[in-house]
Amino acid sequence: MIDTMIGVDLAKNVFHLHGASMTGQLKFRKKLSRPQFRAFLSTQPPAVIVMEACGSASYWARVLSGVGHEVKLIAPQYVKPFVKRQKNDAADAEAIVIAAQRSEMRFVPPKTKDQQARAILFRNRERLVNQRTELVKGLRSILYEFGHTIPQGIGNVSRGYEILEDPNCDLPDLVRQECRDLLELIEETTVRIAAKLKRIKALSTETETAKRLQTMPGVGPLSALAIEAFAPPLETFARGRDFAAWLGLVPRQHSSGGKPRLGRMSKAGQSDIRRLLIIGAMSRLSRLGRKSIPKGSWLERMETVQLSGVMPL
Questions:
Q1: Is the pLDDT at 289 greater than 90, yes or no?
Q2: How far is CA 287 from CA 175, 280, 306, in A?
Q3: Angle (deg, nearest 10), helices 113-145 and 158-165
Q4: E strand residue ranges, the chain
Q5: CA nearest to 248, candidates 278, 218, 224, 226
Q6: Where do the domains of the chain lie?
Q7: Could you give the CA distance from residue 51 to residue 257 in angstroms, rounded to a whole number?
Q8: What architecture (CATH level 2) is domain 4-100?
Q9: pTM of the predicted model, to two decimals?
Q10: pLDDT tens digits for 85-141?
């Protein structure tokens, strides 16, 4: 029977451990280097290891589970209220144990290697898209300084070539060369983005969950990959409203004295999934998207409510 809980404050090189009984009595405090941390826990009897859900947490969860420990991850915001007075690594490790011993505490499932790999692919594509946006903005601002304007949107970048190749172009040679360099970088980044999108589409056909998700209106390969990579197992949610609450698609509450006060959407959940689902939903409500709504479907009934303001029977 497991009778020890160990809170671990993760770091790159120095780890702080707080060992306690399941009822809270202190057993040990330790400060260990990375090799010492792995060796120490490999020789310990099975215990409940609790860590904050942060960088490398899923990796250490897999490593420690492999040597017989039960690993739990806890959201950092749930640990903060239990830090006593001054904040330091040892106090954080103690607070992790105290928080984890609360009966009502909720934990974060560790990610598998496949989930982490999909998350890296998703993040790298997002990073490239942001870099391309920065390059496009730089190109537009340079041309604007010399009286040339390019409309917003990646589809209008070709206007830059038209301006540079115009025989009557009044741009200095140095500026023209810099603009060509930016256009080449934009082209290279676009090719990389397309390659990663192709890989995402291929991955979205490999798992049954991703295939089922894409049968929903407004959910494509990107949204399916994000849900697989960042969301906990969907069977942990009792109903769709629980998943919406996890995403932050619920009003922020500031209720007191029995009087409910609801504010704007809390946006407290996973931002990537929430953004993609909102974009997908809005695409179905566009003029072209409405033409493909099946007759008699839930979405068609909701559209009727929006247009008429009368709830359907």
A1: no
A2: 42, 14, 14
A3: 30
A4: 4-9, 14-21, 26-33, 48-52, 70-74, 251-253, 262-265
A5: 278
A6: 4-100, 113-203
A7: 36
A8: 2-Layer Sandwich (3.30)
A9: 0.84
A10: 888 999 999 999 999 999 999 899 999 999 999 999 999 999 999 999 999 999 999
